[in-house]
Specification:
CATH architecture: Beta Barrel
Number of helices: 1
Shape: globular
Strand content: over 45%
Strand order of the largest sheet: 1-2-3-4-5-6-8-9-10-11
Distance between the termini: 24 Å
CATH topology: Lipocalin
Radius of gyration: 18 Å
Structural class: mainly beta
Oligomer: single chain
Number of domains: 1
CATH class: Mainly Beta
Helix content: under 10%
Length: 223
């Protein structure tokens, strides 16, 4: 039995939105990544239009700089905001093997839902957070994610792509000379559940462009 797409004819799933997104990500990847030094709190974004709420636990491998290392972090959707706000925090090895910690507040809001003429769900994402290691790195990410979910029986999956920018402020004796910087942000992600209620969602995401990292983990009681 194949996957079904609710309320949209197969003829409406034209390939051009995905093709444009892939092309944009490819262009971002082709640009040289500047030195960022630190574990940035917002990478990978891990926010798709249908990404689960609830509690999440993740392993991350950072790659903005040589010698970036492993990290672990958690996310939790704040109650009372209809899923619009979530916090994340964790720690690991940053550039040069230095111990680094990070945390921040994620924000999200729907921009558009799929129709017969527009097959993708779109969501705005933003946030504010800080990474602390060799110096202090404050980051404000802003962007848009696009994706769509499919289901078949008890299996549910939701791939998505993300494009955006991040404004960084650096402070401390070891910080780079340029206090402010704006970096491109791009990524892909996939959420997968094997039960209809989506009590447990397997999640994976890769950040591309300037803020490279990969993360995998599990969201619990997301729905």
């Amino acid at each position: 039995m194949g996957f079904r797409v609710s309320r949209v004819r197969r003829s409406a799933l034209r390939p051009y939105p995905w093709g444009a997104a892939v092309l944009a990500i490819g262009l971002c990847m082709s640009a040289p990544a500047p030195v960022t030094a630190q574990l940035v709190w917002d990478t990978p974004r891990l926010i798709g239009p249908e990404s689960p709420r609830g509690l999440g636990v993740y392993w991350m491998r950072a790659g903005a700089l040589p010698e970036d290392g492993d990290a672990v972090f958690g996310t939790w959707t704040l109650p009372g905001f209809d899923g619009a706000l979530a916090i994340r925090g964790g720690g690991g090895r940053g550039a040069g093997g230095e111990v680094a910690g990070f945390g921040g507040l994620d924000a999200r809001a729907p921009l558009a839902r799929h129709t017969e003429g527009q097959p993708l769900d779109l969501e705005w994402t933003g946030g504010l957070g800080v990474g602390v290691g060799e110096y202090v790195l404050v980051s404000v990410p802003v962007g848009v994610s696009a994706g769509r979910s499919w289901s078949s029986g008890s299996v549910w999956l939701a791939p998505y792509v993300y494009l955006g920018l991040a404004l960084d402020y650096r402070a401390g004796d070891a910080a780079p000379d340029d206090e402010f910087d704006v970096q491109g942000s791009a990524g892909i992600g996939l959420d997968l559940a094997l039960d209809r209620a989506r009590r447990f969602v397997i999640r994976a995401s890769a950040a591309l462009a300037d803020r490279q990292a990969v993360a995998v983990g599990l969201a619990i009681a997301g729905g």
